[in-house]
Amino acid sequence: MAESEVDLESEQYEKHREAGRILSQVREETAERVEVGASHLEVAEYAEDRIRELGGKPAFPVNISIDEEAAHATPSIDDDSTFGEEMINLDIGVHVDGWLADTAITVDLSGNPELAEAPEEALEAAIDVIEPGVETGEIGAEIEDVIDGYGFNPVVNLTGHGLGHWEQHTSPNIPNRAVSQGTTLEVGDVVAIEPFATDGGGKVTEGSSEEIFSLEREGNVRNRQARAALDQITEEFRTLPFATRWLETDRPKMALRRLKRSDIVHGYPVLKEDDGCLVSQKEHTLIVTESGCEVTTE
Ligand code: CO
């Protein structure tokens, strides 16, 4: 007998499942709204409002990544951009009382169906090998194999991750390539697996724009707007990422600048491949079970 029994029917896992059910529905409904001419801001707000209507909360701002962008892009407060004939990744998260689900889908309006397909097939192959004791390096090898087979590169400096209570990125990392020093998955682990494929070099770098932030540490600020923002952050988002446009104080950008300068919050710069490249993505959250795994965002 195992020395520690994990109860997969406990409230914590039921909340992970509830977050996953809400998220699956929102992902599909949101993807349908992505079309040439549709507004980024309206699509992001649609998803975030639907999550709340269905009884969850957004676990992080809806990421809308275009073409060479891979992660951490979300519309600004006054964003007026619209979709074109592009490769579009939607990465969406839901939490129920801090228990998370995380999923992503690529909507291809650029006419590159194979690139959009590669991470989907890679994710299926990864899910197929998941069971207690599987090494994360083996999961990465499956992902790399499939994406290589399509003639594309996996993005190797982005990884899947564990999901903790009020924490969107915890150990273990799930690599998108074969690695030798990994860790093993155990019954009860909740992880997000997210293969990225690209026709670029397979390594993203930080861009200059930053619309997503999270709390770094407790602290005090004197400025009134910064203090109001900090109160909202600690009460509502806690340690989860949030967007500038979610802040209710007037002058949110100034408030954030002050909180950043005091190292109370940190930003997530947009991560991207080189100009002219395309990136696609697919992600599911799953719970490791005795016999394999249960995908909560199917
Ligand atoms: Co994720």
Automatic annotation (TrEMBL):
Its EC number is 3.4.11.18. Substrate binds at residues 72, 169. Pfam families: Peptidase_M24 (PF00557). A divalent metal cation 2 binds at residues 102, 161, 194, 283. Keywords: Aminopeptidase, Hydrolase, Metal-binding, Protease. Binds 2 divalent metal cations per subunit. Has a high-affinity and a low affinity metal-binding site. The true nature of the physiological cofactor is under debate. The enzyme is active with cobalt, zinc, manganese or divalent iron ions. Most likely, methionine aminopeptidases function as mononuclear Fe(2+)-metalloproteases under physiological conditions, and the catalytically relevant metal-binding site has been assigned to the histidine-containing high-affinity site. GO terms for biological process: proteolysis. GO terms for molecular function: initiator methionyl aminopeptidase activity; metal ion binding; metalloaminopeptidase activity. A divalent metal cation 1 binds at residues 91, 102, 283. Coiled coil: none annotated. Its cofactor is Fe(2+); Mn(2+); Co(2+); Zn(2+). Gene3D superfamilies: Creatinase/methionine aminopeptidase superfamily (3.90.230.10), Winged helix-like DNA-binding domain superfamily/Winged helix DNA-binding domain (1.10.10.10). It catalyses: Release of N-terminal amino acids, preferentially methionine, from peptides and arylamides. Residues 14-198 form the Peptidase M24 domain. One of its GO terms (cellular component) is cytoplasm. InterPro entries: Creatinase/aminopeptidase-like, Met_Aminopeptidase_Type2, MetAP_archaeal, Pept_M24, Pept_M24_MAP, Pept_M24A_MAP2, WH-like_DNA-bd_sf, WH_DNA-bd_sf. Monomer. Removes the N-terminal methionine from nascent proteins. The N-terminal methionine is often cleaved when the second residue in the primary sequence is small and uncharged (Met-Ala-, Cys, Gly, Pro, Ser, Thr, or Val). Belongs to the peptidase M24A family. Methionine aminopeptidase archaeal type 2 subfamily. PANTHER family: METHIONINE AMINOPEPTIDASE 2. This is Methionine aminopeptidase. It comes from Natrarchaeobius chitinivorans. The gene is map.
